[in-house]
Model the fold of this input.
Amino acid sequence: MESSEPHGADKSSIETTQTEFNALILRHKAMIWHICSDYRLGNVWNTEDCVQEVIISLWRSFKSFEGRSSEKTWVWRVATNTMLKLRRKDVRSPQTEPIETENADKQDDNDPDDDSSQQLQQLIDALPEESGTVIRAFLDGFSYKEIAEMTNSSVGAVAMRIVRIKQKLRVMFERENNP
Done:
């Protein structure tokens, strides 16, 4: 009698894999959402699409994760690569205007922290893709060692790169705010 499970896998191993994967997603769902929303793909719908694409990418590579890096680093790398792929695809697609929501009307336009955060986000968006990825990882609280693992660099190279990116952001900020 042939098994109806794919590739001869038994039902308990498939259920175990699914349970482990679900737990992984629950542990890292906030980071996945943050990565997808941080890159400003457009509107909430695009962020949700990005999250779904990240989950699909994680599922496809779940069994091949060998644990050579931390689980968090691996999820971050898959999520970032998936988001960057979507972003490149989005650049080639026609842009549409997002639909305004009720919350947009309730925003306080005079909040300086919100303005600074938005300006920083815009400056980071203007950086080359690799620099933006490194500085976002740094801002997300990853250690130099973790960023080095994610980018296949040395810790020293990451440290120097972050210093240079910060300097570049500072210059960009000053140019924009002191015409």
The chain has eight helices and no strands.
